[in-house]
Amino acid sequence: MTPGSHDRVMGMPNISPNGSAPRCDHVDSLVPVIPQSPGCRECQARGAGWLRLLVCLTCGWVACSDDSPHHHALAHYEETDHPLAAELAPGPDARWCYVHRRAV
Q: Is 73 strand, coil or helix?
């Protein structure tokens, strides 16, 4: 992660906002969010690391991905039912819908 990347606005739909069929209506309700932190707060509190970071596209919460040891992004979805997350990394947006269990 680059310094200042937590200042990015996330959640704007790409040119093809729904990827492949079946359609994901969660993408249609996206509004821009600002990531709330530069890292996973739960991992930082434990002194743990992560492989990738995801930002919740509903509220901007930043958490470690499912391929990280503690799966805090999944825990955030299970607690809040916020359906979409995107990688918190420079480059093309890769969004994941927890409800449909696929990239959108």
A: helix
